[in-house]
């Protein structure tokens, strides 16, 4: 399914995953620290901007290459893949709706991995129901004043560039507008690091906006068009989360298969038992099916097809449910050792969980898919 150039990108990522990223994965999880060394190597190899046009500092490749790269990095360390996926999430509204000036000013630094970016959507009372958000942007002369609170923002406090989803009028969906902010702006502060179950090497914090003054040039897309931009952003980023899930599952599968080939019980290695073979067969089928859905969604994005929202939701939902199932089975295949932190499948099972939650929970993906089936 991958063309030569896409395979080359995937191979580069595979090598980095094996030679660099995998070596730090256990420590990154244990210490709960951002994998700066991995990020540096990813940046040096141009992996932050795989799908970004060359004129904005990217490699000028496509979404299919992008998801293939994410998959490889996630197979070694999900936390490191979150650095890539959050960067893509932050760049997406610029690429989709930014002015030429905004694109030139912000995208190259993000695409080259020189700085990190964050996208602030979620609020204490506004999660799945994005259009209920209450952070406001109020016009004040030639500027806007941003006020409110965001929660669960990946890389908050570490990022230099922020996109915030705000309300510029009472209209539920047509009153939503995006703004760009930068670290160091007066009134932009961050909460403590959340202590998380998984992807512990990515930082998640609250963000407080207290009269943050941004010039009107920092409005990203037209006033009131934020909700539509956001939905288009999700079309692009949900397959990326799907790719992350496929990678995590592949990493756990590879480890478990190797383990059962070597672990002896009842005088034979475990791979001789039919029940173990059947589990391995199910895991393999699920991973391959999820990968195809992710690649299909990415291809539809590359080809600009109409039904991309449906395919992005299906890819994200199926792949993340698959990752939870496959990593749980991987733990099972290792028996008691699977439950012990010394073995990586335990981390992978914890890391898989977030892929069912962020970028729209899997219930929300099913709502979207159901709407396509019955209302379109
Ligand atoms: C580690 C981590 C990183 C994150 N990173 C970011 C980030 O960088 N930027 C950002 O903006 N957000 C981020 N999020 C937030 C994430 O996207 C939200 O947590 C998610 O969208 C769910 O919102 P919620 O937590 O408020 O849950 P709720 O919306 O309160 O949902 C609770 C439960 O109810 C279900 N539910 C809600 N509505 C329906 C419905 N209509 N039908 C059926 N079930 C429903 C949900 O599926 C879920 O199971 C992150 C979260 C985490 C944990």
Automatic annotation (TrEMBL):
The keyword Flavoprotein applies. Pfam families: Acyl-CoA_dh_1 (PF00441), Acyl-CoA_dh_M (PF02770), Acyl-CoA_dh_N (PF02771). Residues 224-371 form the Acyl-CoA dehydrogenase/oxidase C-terminal domain. It comes from the Bacteria. It is an enzyme of class 1 (oxidoreductase). Residues 118-212 form the Acyl-CoA oxidase/dehydrogenase middle domain. InterPro entries: Acyl-CoA_DH_CS (IPR006089), Acyl-CoA_Oxase/DH_mid-dom (IPR006091), Acyl-CoA_Oxase/DH_mid-dom_sf (IPR046373), AcylCo_DH-like_C (IPR036250), AcylCo_DH/oxidase_C (IPR009075), AcylCoA_DH/ox_N (IPR013786), AcylCoA_DH/ox_N_sf (IPR037069), AcylCoA_DH/oxidase_NM_dom_sf (IPR009100). Its cofactor is FAD. GO terms for molecular function: medium-chain fatty acyl-CoA dehydrogenase activity. Residues 4-114 form the Acyl-CoA dehydrogenase/oxidase N-terminal domain. Belongs to the acyl-CoA dehydrogenase family. This is Acyl-CoA dehydrogenase.
């Amino acid at each position: 399914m991958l063309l030569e150039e896409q395979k080359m990108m995937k191979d580069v990522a595979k090598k980095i995953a094996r030679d660099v990223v995998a070596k730090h994965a256990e420590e990154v999880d244990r210490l709960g620290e951002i994998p700066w060394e991995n990020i540096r190597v990813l940046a040096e190899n141009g992996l932050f901007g795989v799908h970004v046009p060359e004129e904005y500092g990217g490699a000028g490749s496509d979404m299919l290459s992008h998801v293939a790269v994410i998959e490889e990095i996630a197979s070694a360390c999900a936390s490191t893949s979150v650095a890539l996926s959050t960067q893509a999430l932050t760049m997406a509204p610029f690429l989709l709706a930014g002015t030429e000036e905004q694109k030139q000013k912000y995208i190259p630094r993000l695409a080259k991995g020189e700085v990190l970016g964050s996208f602030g959507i979620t609020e204490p009372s506004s999660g799945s129901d994005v259009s209920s958000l209450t952070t406001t942007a109020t016009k004040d002369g030639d500027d806007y004043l941003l006020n409110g609170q965001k929660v669960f923002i990946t890389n908050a406090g570490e990022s230099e560039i922020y996109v915030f989803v705000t309300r510029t009028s009472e209209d539920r969906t047509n009153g939503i507008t995006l703004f760009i902010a930068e670290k160091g702006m007066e009134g932009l502060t961050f909460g403590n690091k959340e202590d998380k179950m998984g992807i512990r090497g990515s930082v998640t914090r609250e963000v407080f906006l207290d009269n943050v003054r941004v010039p009107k040039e920092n409005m990203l897309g037209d006033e009131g068009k934020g909700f539509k931009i956001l939905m288009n952003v999700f079309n692009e980023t949900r397959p990326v989360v799907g790719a992350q899930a496929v990678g995590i599952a592949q990493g756990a599968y590879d480890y478990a298969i190797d383990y059962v080939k070597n672990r002896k019980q009842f005088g034979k290695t475990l791979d001789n038992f039919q029940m173990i073979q059947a589990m391995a067969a199910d895991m393999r089928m699920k991973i391959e099916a999820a990968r195809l859905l992710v690649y299909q969604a990415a291809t539809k994005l590359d080809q600009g097809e109409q039904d991309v929202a449906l395919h992005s939701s299906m890819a994200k939902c199926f792949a993340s449910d698959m990752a939870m199932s496959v990593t749980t089975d991987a733990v099972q295949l290792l028996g008691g050792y699977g439950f012990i932190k010394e073995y990586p499948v335990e981390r992978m099972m914890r890391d898989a969980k977030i892929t069912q939650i962020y970028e729209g929970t899997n219930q929300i993906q099913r709502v979207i898919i159901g709407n396509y089936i019955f209302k379109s």
